[in-house]
Amino acid sequence: MERLKSAVPADIRRAVGEGTARDLPSTTSLLLDFFDGVPLFHQRLFFCFLLSKVISELTDPELALCRKDKGRAVELKGRGNACFSKREFEQALGFYSQALRYVPISSDGNYEILVPTLYVNRASTMHKLGLLKQCLRDCNRAISVSSNYAKAWYRRGMVNASLKKYSSAIHDLKVALSMEVTSSGKSNIEQELKLILLKHRNVNEVGRSSSDCQDAGLPHTEPHKVVLECASTPNKGRGMMSLNVISPASLIHVEDPLAAIIIKSCRETHCHYCFSEAPADVVFCPLCTIPVYCSKECQEQAVGDISWNQDTSLEFNSHHLVDNAKLGLTSTRCKTSNSKQIAEHMHECGGAHWAAVLPADIVLAGRVMAQYIDKRLLTGKSSAISGPNLDLVHHYDIDSPTSKLESHIYAIVLLLCLQKYYRSDLSWREESLSQLVLLICQIKVNSIAIVHMKSVDGGQELTESKGYSTASDAVMCSVEQIRVAQAIYMSGSLFNHSCRPNVHTYFHSRTLFLRSTEYIESGSPLELSYGPQAGEMDLLERQKSLQENYKFSCRCSSCSELNLSDLVIDSFCCPRSFCLGAVSESTCYRSEENFVHVSLNGSAVCKLSLPDVSKVDEDMEKVGKLFFRNDDADLKIDPGYCMSCRSQLDLSSVVATLDRAASKINRFKELIVIDDVSEVLITNALQSLEQIKKLRHPYSKALAQAEDKIAEAFAKVGDQEQARKHCEASIKILEKLYHPKHIAIAHELIKLISIKLCMGDKAGAAATVTRAEAIFLLYYGPDVQRVLPYIDALKIAVSG
């Protein structure tokens, strides 16, 4: 990219950088004229050479990093066999999976015997590891590829027996017996049949699961009668509001994405279609080695049909449509069309690997563009493609000159990559490039991060089958959000941001759900969080994040009115022992108009209104007493001065001491992980915590984090009483920064539950589970068990 940018003449770079969205037809034409024109011959030739080289590297099957390779598949199979022989089953599993990734389809469009052999080998390995459901799925895959493969039927019979599905096991073993050609093999199968027939007489059958997909489940049937409207306001522009009263925990919107793409860090760990964690029996794309799928269903949804044409070359059936599994899009006034969805990986495959190399925003733009092209071709419309006209903001005009030039060049690269796939099926109009530049900008601003919740117990994911039974389970369970993908939701993009949102966003698979978290009056705006929230970040940090990522300054209630969280989140203690006032590194002014102006190190000033004195709670009055006095018309509080009594603190000395203390606590936590802890180390960590307590404000986030780290460390060394004490101290601080029913508190309560269970305090744990579940129900409603399955595990643990 850097070489391509540097090859563009300075005058064109300047025109692009200074241009607006209205100038795009002109600036894209300039770039195309340079690409095709005669002037500046040598510079143009160099740019064309670079561009041609880039496109060749991205799309040439012979150069592709993602191409299939039978030789490598055979080599990996051999390494798997060697590990299996040495009973190194986990390593064998990895090698068999990688062999399946590289094995190609044969010249007649069918799989060779190598594929069913690999499936059976992997199934045998998973059987040894106790992964019975995964083993069964691989047996089914082997049989679907080669129905006369005796070993596949035998292995399926054996795993069905392990699953106590004896009727199925007997059937499978009888089929295997009829296909087996060796006498030793027949004798072995007959012996197994006798044993299973005996068990079958005394044991009931176990049911069969209906789907392989990791996120498969019952369709969402919860009614939602909320009527939404897209309206414009002077401060925030276009946004969503309700036309009726909304109760807390009401489902207000459900939507599948227009397009979605997995993020690079999750490519090997999560399904590329439903974004669930990849199981042991992953499925790969038939034509390339990039995507990983959790099931055949997800693979077919993403890849579509594959056909074998008369020229004996493998190709995607570009006319295959996958039914869009809409889950009842809400009755908004700005619905997306209820249409069919084109299989999203088709245009990226067939030997090219550009989708694995280009940034996710660009690949996502390619998926939107490909969907638009395929729908036009399917409906018989003109093959001259201009580009989709999404009704979304783009902020192109305020992008940096560098970003504008990158968008132009990425648009050219993407168009050429798509053209390589579609070939003669379409022609490009002159406005195609300018439309694609805007599309890239729209995706940067409007794409939504898909996050999945994960509960980690001692480094492992906590599932319904796990619980706590003894003090030896000395771990502190924690809940974290995993960002797995980004997507475009046409209606979801119309909800505005607030740092104190009244709508909670969550996902099941790739489906977006929005649920109210409080009582909302008719005609009120419906606002979710784009990431920054009050209590998690201070005011200036939130404003900076939103400006950098979304190009706007937030004026929500938390960013326009002085509040407790922003006063204390990064503050220090007043040097006077009985003063609760906060000491900040920021400069604060109060003007005659009852506004507070906040700036840090001379940075941009944030203007906040003072709340009505009657609404100021006791904590806030004690923390910032000076702001609420009437004897000072104009007030200035410099960095290092208490907001309540004006006592001064030596900030440079305090910050240095706090840095040393935080470093010791972090070191303590690191050594606990590797079981290298001593009494001296524990004493030093507790002394460091006391230093932080003396210097940080009692409601500061840094103190909450220090208490949490100490709690986690004590939980790992088995001192659950100390872990409980410090975990509760952390939660009390977070309740000040957020509010007692915020979802962040529920996540912290999960830690406290695990500690109480390890202490044997099931009554206390049960009470905390009830409190956490009440908060989760507010944010997830009836979906709480589906999105957070570990809640059931905790319920079982406290009642067992």
UniProtKB/TrEMBL annotation:
Residue stretches making up the SET domain: 226-531
Superkingdom per UniProt: Eukaryota
Signal sequence residues: none
SMART domains according to UniProt: TPR
Protein name, per record: SET domain-containing protein
